[in-house]
Amino acid sequence: MPITSKEQIIEDFWKGYNPNTKVVFLNQISSATALIFPVKEICEKAKALGLITIVDGAHVPGHIDLNISNLKADFYTGTAHKWLLTPKGNSFLYVSKDFQQNLDPLVVSWGYESLAPGESQFLDYHEYQGTRDISAYLTIPAALKFLNDNNWKAQSVIYKKLILDNYEKFCTLLNSKPICPVTSEFLGLMCSIPVNTSKPAELKERLFNKYKIEIPVMALNDKVYIRISVHLYNSQQDLDELYKALEDIIATTDYISIKNPG
């Protein structure tokens, strides 16, 4: 940190490669830093090197455009309970056909070595988990319809602009600096701001208990980040309320220090 370009991310990522490398694993959007990574370019190089690619896309569906076929990842997982607004515990696993026969289920149930196998062993092994409640999965069509009916693809551009318009303002308040160029290449509906605090848990609790603001305050390596997320139910007013709350915390507690840049 800070990220200066897509090329820097790619170069830094491949510094970890050596002749013994067999698999590459990466986030498409990271949780703690909220950064969008150049997954397509990394997967393309990995395939050229004969490596297996595993992509964690938990924050991607409903957040930024996703075309798994275009990414050419061997394994991809994403959640529907974040930006698609479905109930918790709702996610999917994609595995390319080249690897489906090599994947055993963590939960062995009726589909395992089935007496009445379907067309896909992969689905037999992984889709049917006995008495598991699948109702959350069944909400996905309604969630997609809701977002489509409300023109979310176009509306999300407005909310992404809220992030771009407010990021540097919050950095200035916290005497910090952006961790990446403030553009849509690196930021979607979230941004993470370095905050100089030795009390991240207390800061998070104060924001919730006193100001009724639910927001992650996360440690990563030797840094702490406060992550702002916006969706169709948020507005500039919400961000203004957060700004005022942080101003008050700086003035009345020792939870945030602004003496040294983040």
Strand content: 5-15%
Question: What is the CATH topology assignment of the largest domain?
Answer: Aspartate Aminotransferase, domain 2
Q: Could you give the count of β-strands?
A: 7
- In DSSP terms, counting alpha (H) and pi (I) runs of 4 or more, how many helices? 8
Q: What is the CATH architecture assignment of the largest domain?
A: 3-Layer(aba) Sandwich
Largest sheet descriptor:
4 strands, mixed
Separation, N- and C-terminal Cα atoms: 11 Å
Name of the CATH superfamily of the largest domain: Type I PLP-dependent aspartate aminotransferase-like (Major domain)
What class, by secondary structure content? Answer: alpha/beta
What is the N-to-C order of secondary-structure elements (H for helix, E for strand)?
HEHEHEEHHHEHEEH
What is the domain total for the residues? 2
Could you walk me through the main structural features you see in this protein, from its secondary elements to its overall organization?
- With 262 residues, the protein is of the alpha/beta class.
- The protein folds into two domains: 6-149, Aspartate Aminotransferase, domain 2, CATH 3.40.640; 152-252, Aspartate Aminotransferase, domain 1.
- Helix content is 34%, strand content 14%.
- It has eight helices and seven strands; from the N terminus they run αβαβαββαααβαββα.
- The strands form two sheets. Strands 1-2-3-4 form a four-stranded mixed sheet, with helices on one face.
- Helix 2 (39-48) links the parallel strand 1 and strand 2 (52-57).
- It is globular, with a radius of gyration of 21 Å.
- The relative contact order is 0.12.
- The model has no long low-confidence stretch (mean pLDDT 91).
